[in-house]
Design goal:
The chain is α+β, with helices and mostly antiparallel strands and 341 residues long. Among the domains are: 94 residues, Thrombin, subunit H (Beta Barrel), CATH 2.40.10; 83 residues, Phage tail protein beta-alpha-beta fold (3-Layer(bab) Sandwich), CATH 3.55.50; 52 residues, no CATH class. Helix content is 16%, strand content 42%.
Length: 341
Amino acid sequence: MIVTPSVCRYDVILQNKYFLRECIQFLTLEDRLDEVAYCGKVKLAVPDDQFTGLPIIIPGMEIRISGTKFGESKYSYLIQPGVVWDVEIDNRERRNWNLTIYDRTIYLSKSEDQFLFQEGTTASDRIKQICSEWNIPILNIPDTKQALAQDVVRAKSLWNIIQDQLKETAEKSGKLFTVRMQPDGLELFEIGSNVDPWVFEFAVNLQSVRQKQTLNGAVTKVKVLGKQEKGSTAPIEFETNADIDKYGTIQKVIPYKKGLDTNAIQQKATNTLAGIQETVTVEAIDINTIRKGDKVIVQGWEDGLYVISVKHNCNSPGIMQMELASLEYIRRRYYRSEKSF
C-alpha cells in the first residue's frame, strides 16, 4: 500500500490521572530487535500556572502514551502499561522534564532468574513458563513447534534467557521470532509475518535512503572443533568455506560436543558463512504502527526488507528513521548462538 502524510495526535497520561498533551514539546517512540522494551522519550514543558497539583515525576511512576494510529482518528494505547524509567530536569524552576518511558517488558532485561527447561519443550512453552512465573499477561504466543535441548539456566536476565531459546529455534527450524509488548499483553511475533507490508517510494513518501556495505561480520571459513585432549590441539571435525578468493580468509571457530547430529553440525557451520554485510537506513513519512521485525518494501528492494530498528518522531505529520536489512543478515547478527553444539 502507498502511504501519504497523516496528522497524528498524541497524549502522555501520568498515573492514569494527569493528561499532559499540552505540555509535550517533542515525543519519540523507538523499537529495536536488540532490546525487549518499546521506548518513549518525551520532553515536557510545564508552566507554573497550569496543572496545579501535578506531582513531581520520579522513576517508577505509572505512565502511558496514547495516540491516533496512522490512518485512524480514535485514540489507541501505544505504550500501556508503561513506567517512568529516567527523569532529567532542565532548570531550577522544575518546568522542563525529559522522561524516558518503557513498556513494562523492561523488567525482563533488568531482572535475573534461574530456570530448568525440560528437553523437548519449545521456545513457546518456555516463554509461557517465564510469563506465568512473572505474572506477565499474554496476548499471543504461537507454537514455534521446534523441540529444544534441555537448558539449565543460572542467574541470567530473563530477556537473555528468552533470546537463547529463540536463537536455538532459529538454528534448528530456520524461523525467526521476537517478543513485543502490546497493550493487551506479550506477543511472540514471527519476523516478517505482518500482512500487507508498507511500501515506500521516493515520489510519494520516501525522503532518503542510505545503503551501507561492510566486511565487518563477514565469515568466509568455518572450522568445527572436537574435544581437545590434554597437551594437544582439538581435532577438526568439519570445515567449510565460501568466497575466500573474493573476500579473503575470515575464519570462525566453533566447538561442539561429540555424539550429536552430524547434519545439524554441518548446517550450523554453513549458516555461519557470510559475505558482505548490508544495511539500509531509511527516512520516510511516519507510520507509527511499524514495529521491530516488520517487513517493509522500499524502492530498489522490491522483495522486501525487515525492520531492525525504527524511531518514530511524533510530529504532525511525523518523520521516522528505520534501519533495515535482509532476513539472512538479521539471522546472522541477532540469532547466531554462541553456545557450543
